[in-house]
Amino acid sequence: MTAWNNLSEREKELDRQIGQLAGLNFEKTKCCFDMIDTTIESVMREIGAFPRERDFIIDRMMKNVEVGNAINKIDCLLGDSENMFGKFDEENKKWEQKGKEFGFRVDEKK
Description:
Distance between the termini: 51 Å
Largest sheet: none
Shape: rod-shaped
Order of helices and strands: HHH
Number of strands: 0
């Protein structure tokens, strides 16, 4: 993948447009781009890319797919963490209640 500073102004503009399309596609379908010829050709037509720019377009579309996949993994990890902490809190409350039933002093958190 080419560093942003090394891209031409044309490539930067194409990349921005691909990013916008990727965002709209995700909002509409909740999926990343399908990296198939018809999708690639559709994106190229939509942003006015030339056939000679196809490799660049594919590279930048793949970047968006990779970012989308990373975000999905992070969302799953955060969801799992929230569930884990929620279960921990439930278990902690149960053990505090059992402690009170046995006469242990349980300090209330403030």
